[in-house]
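debug: dumping io for the single-chain case to check the tokenizer round-trip. Nothing else runs in this session.
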Amino acid sequence: MSKIELQIKPETAPMPWEEFCKTHPPFSVGVDGYIDAGPKFDADAPHANFDHHHGVSRLETRATCGQALIAVRMGLFQCFRDKCGPRMTVYANDCDQDVCTAWTILKHHYLADQTMNPALNRLVSIEDMLDTTAGAYPFPADLPIMEEFAWVYEPYTQCRLAGGLEKRDAGAFKSVVSDVENRILQHVAGKGESLPVDTRYEQVGGGKGWAMVHELGAQARTGMFADGIRAFLSVKERKDGKWSYVIGRMSEYIKFPILRMLDTLNQAEGAEKDRWGGATTIAGSPRIGGSKLTPDEVSRIINDSLPKTE
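debug: decoded output
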């Protein structure tokens, strides 16, 4: 009998791969930022990590759900199995679209085994491109599939816009993942619904070649990049007085050195474990406790990190 479980630990900061292997039992898999490492696999335990945040070139690395899909099709559950059948415990510290999609693929792996599943292939392909590019892939906002996606991932976007991510409540996160999982299954079965795409945002600052924004709509980044914004700092004040930030750029071809910024931001933050982190095209403030740095302080660090021009 298949035994595939989900453990969501929102207050667990990303840990090194070696620590994960030592502290988590056999058949454990980290997804999308739970481990501070890129894709990893240890056949002996077995352990695995599906991730495109840490130590990778983001544009050339599949999103977590894309990694999970190809892993399933290439025999993942020939390894993650005991005498009773498929066995896996999936660990996450977030509940975003990539986590939800990866979890659905791993839990319902029998749907992913066969390559001829057009609805699932399309869902993963588009989510992969959107997540890889921080929502910057130039899909037209009025493309019908974008309205279908708005409905599929509505439980997460509503949670994010309402400030639910800041509470780091494991039960609430798990409920979001479960709701999105059910919507993905409906969508793949041809029974999904659609919602209008909301691309509203407010520009509140910025610098040369980048904008500071408040994201108002669930698909704000689609609107931002349609308006010509190629690099951004998304700002949200938390109820505890701290701040949540996302730093992003359309691709590595945009001169906006995120990794250099992260080093300086972490020095200013002074945090040891719960740190600013990410990859070459998108990063964010500490997931657990947020940032003590004000938008003006973050803006100053960003501007000081930009390439100097004559």
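debug: round-trip ok. Residues 3-188 form one domain.
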